[in-house]
Amino acid sequence: MTRHNDRLGFTLVELLFALVIGLVVTSASLNFAISVFRNVEGDKVREEVYRNSRFVGSSLGRDIQYTGVGIESEVRFGTASTRGDTVVILYVPHDPQLAHAHEIVTPLGSSNPLPAGGTCGSYCIRLQKDPGGNFDLGAGDLARLQVNTERHLIIVQSITDNGTTFDLTFRPDTILFGMEAGFQGGLLLDNTTTFVQELEPIVYFVQDSVLFRSEGFDSTGAMIAGPMAFGVNDWDASMVFVDGDTATSVNTLDSDFTNDLDDVLAILVRTTLGANRPIRVVGGGEFTRDYEWLLTPRNLMYERNR
Alpha helix locations (H) across the chain? Predict the structure, then answer.
């Protein structure tokens, strides 16, 4: 009888050697996979921040050029202004003509100027329709109330059509965008030099690290806004005046006459943008970049150079 001594298994040394090689290969593969994942996620985060910056910068650059269309800035009334983290742009809408300036309907037997308040209620003004018998104002619209050279802002609350005229009721605000509103300061209406004209606002503001953009209000005075960018870690907006000074707000009552709202030449925005969400494998969990935009509206340049 022949005896066979062929082995049918592995020795302990061979088994341990195979396990070590397997662990080395698995570890290398895992490290490679983690590295690829980090690179992919890092590229996604960086591209997200760069894309947000391009979008915000192009949007600001486009909107700022509407500044002052159909209306010029004055000492206490600016078509481009800032308030800390807020940028405000005002212009007269056009489709294709500029919004009509609706003149006041003079009450019969009234004195001039009119008594305090409105002509059809405490915050109501009766206005004439345009030559075609139309009106272009509705609830939530922003408008300027102009009496002689005095300009105030109002938010339309409701409109009543009377046929040839209409009654405009506005909210009892006293300050809007840092400017006087309604009958603030004891404003009295004038029989012959009072009109109301629609204005279009564009507002950028930051809330809870989200940049919002708004183009108006609802009838309650709440701003209707949509998000533009997330991960906004910092947002500082300021005005650049003709003398080169900068300020985040203005004081039209001080002794410096070179930093009023009619002296604004440009808007400066400095921001730090991050990703929409933190990624722990990228930059310790956060990736940010600093940006700066100096925006000069052509209409403000025209006002300065004419």
Answer: 12-64, 298-305
Q: Which amino acid is at 214?
A: S
Q: Looking at residue 208, what DSSP letter applies?
A: T
Question: What domain range is 123 assigned to?
Answer: 99-200
For residue range 43-57, list pLDDT tens digits in order: 667 788 888 899 999
Name 94's Cβ contacts closer than 8 Å, sequence gap at least 6: 69, 70
pLDDT in tens, 169-227: 999 999 999 999 999 999 999 999 999 999 999 999 999 999 999 999 987 889 999 99
Taking the C-alpha atoms of residue 167 and residue 151, their distance in angstroms, rounded to an integer, is: 20
Q: Is residue 240 part of a domain?
A: no
SS3 65: coil
Task: Give the count of domains, the chain.
Answer: 1
Place of tokens 């600093």: 290
- Nearest CA to 183 out of 174, 191, 192, 170 is that of 174
Measure the CA–CA gap between 136 and 297, rounded to whole angstroms.
26
Side-chain half-sphere exposure of 53, counting CA atoms within 13 A? 21
- Residue 134 sits in a domain whose CATH number is 2.40.30
In angstroms, rounded to a whole number, what is the distance separating the alpha carbons of residues 256 and 260? Answer: 8
pTM: 0.83
Q: Chain centroid to CA 100: how far?
A: 25
| Closest among 137, 129, 131, 166 to 154, alpha carbons compared | 137
